[in-house]
Amino acid sequence: MHVTTRAAAIAILGVACACSASAEPDEDARSSTAGSGGETSGSGASSSNGAGGEPSSSSSGASSSTAAASGGAGGGGGGQSGQPFQMVDSLAGATMGNVVGGSLGPDGWTVTDRTDRLWWALPRLVEGSVEFTVTNLTLANLTVNDNEVLAIYDGGWGIAEPIAYNPEYRNNYYKGMIRIYGTNEPERTGQQKTIWFMCPAGSPGYGQGEPCPCASSFGEETYSGDPSWDGSPQVLRITWAAGKTTLYRNGAEVHALDWSGSGVTFGPSELHVSLGTSRSTAVDTAGMPVGAVFSNVVIEGITGPETPACQ
Predict the structure, then answer these.
(1) 272 forms bridges with which residues in the sheet?
(2) What's the whole-number average pLDDT of the chain?
(3) What is the pLDDT, as a whole number, of residue 248?
(4) Helix (H, G, I), strand (E, B) or coil at 166
(5) Which residues pair with 117 in a beta bridge?
(6) Which residues, in sequence order, are bridge partners of residue 142?
(7) What 3-state DSSP class applies to 157?
(8) pLDDT band for position 311 (cuts 50, 70, 90)
(9) Of 7, 26, 188, 207, which sits most exposed with the smallest number of CB within 10 A?
(10) How far apart are CA 125 and CA 93, in angstroms?
């Protein structure tokens, strides 16, 4: 396992980031109960197109300071609430994240195997966004069914990194994901899927495939979007704020998931984000697009409290 880290590649507003390295036998869990942490069946998924423009990024013109990096798995705790946060990691030749495969070069992080991943441990952002650029992405390398390019999950409660697939990631209580369907999914090739689950069940941070035990939870997914990928730079951005999770592509809204009426807030024990997911280590129908180049990762938001456990 190859792990690379560079703390100096981060720009932070207000809070430090714990961003340094620590040392599917089946489809994702198919639960019809919201918030169980498992993915429901993608066929016939509804598409919710929320109104309003994309929240503007504060990545430009912001004063910043260098992070005091400490870390390892579980390093991304909450800290003081209400603090603005921004992380900028170009991936040009180095990263302050934790690399599991792939190759860092002047243009960014290149995927060399479908199981490659790159993860960060972050402050708990109760509202925020993750943005990245991907180039050299075409239908020629979007081959596996599920190209899972981004994951957001709870990495607390002693969950080891790189996170294992089942049950730690598969049934994670706070789970978001961006998927791009490959040519092995002919009816939706190239379309984008957003998944968002929230279940405030506390320790150990994931279930065993059962429905969320809490009275209030949320779980929804949808797919749609422009199916064309021509290799040119594409900017993907996911935001979560004001009871809504929204996916944007090149500044245009793809779809939105509204959880404002769910009675639950986004407050994992420890927030972790990764390019790629661990599902690729368990099934051959999921993975990263080999040859794609990722760069210019910007993660920002506002820190806040952990959502109290329901039990």
Answers:
(1) 121, 153
(2) 83
(3) 98
(4) helix
(5) 100
(6) none
(7) coil
(8) confident
(9) 26
(10) 27
Mean pLDDT over 128-145 rounds to 98
- Residue 21 confidence (pLDDT): 34
Q: Which two tokens stand for residue 288?
A: 């990263």
Among residues 109, 77, 86, which one has the least CA distance to residue 4? 109
What 3-state class would DSSP assign to 165?
Answer: helix
What is the number of residues in the chain?
311
Does residue 283 sit in helix, strand or coil? Answer: coil
Query: CB count, 10 Å around CB of 94?
Result: 16
Sequence-separated (6 or more) residues with CB below 8 Å from residue 200: 173, 214, 216, 217, 264, 265, 267, 307, 308, 309, 310
Q: Regarding predicted confidence, which is higher, 301 or 43?
A: 301
The Cα–Cα gap between 158 and 176 comes to 20
Task: List the structure tokens of 140.
Answer: 């020629």
Q: Measure the CA–CA gap between 182 and 140, rounded to whole angstroms.
A: 9
**69: its two tokens:** 């990096």
Distance of CA 288 to the CA centre of its chain: 13
Q: Compute the Cα dihedral for 249, 43, 271, 3 and give only its sign.
A: negative
Cis peptide before 204, with omega less than 30 degrees from 0? yes
pLDDT surpassing 60 at residue 91: yes
pLDDT tens readout for residues 180-237: 999 999 999 999 999 999 999 999 999 999 999 999 999 999 999 999 999 999 999 9
Decide: pTM greater than 0.90.
no
**Average pLDDT, integer, range 37-56:** 38
DSSP annotation string for 208-271: SSSPP-SSS-EEEEEEES----BSS-EEEEEEEETTEEEEEETTEEEEEEE-TTSS-----SSE
Q: Quick one: DSSP state of residue 3?
A: -
Q: If we measure between CA atoms, which residue out of 304, 307, 309, 308 comes closest to residue 79?
A: 304
Q: Is the peptide bond before 211 cis (omega within 30 degrees of 0)?
A: no
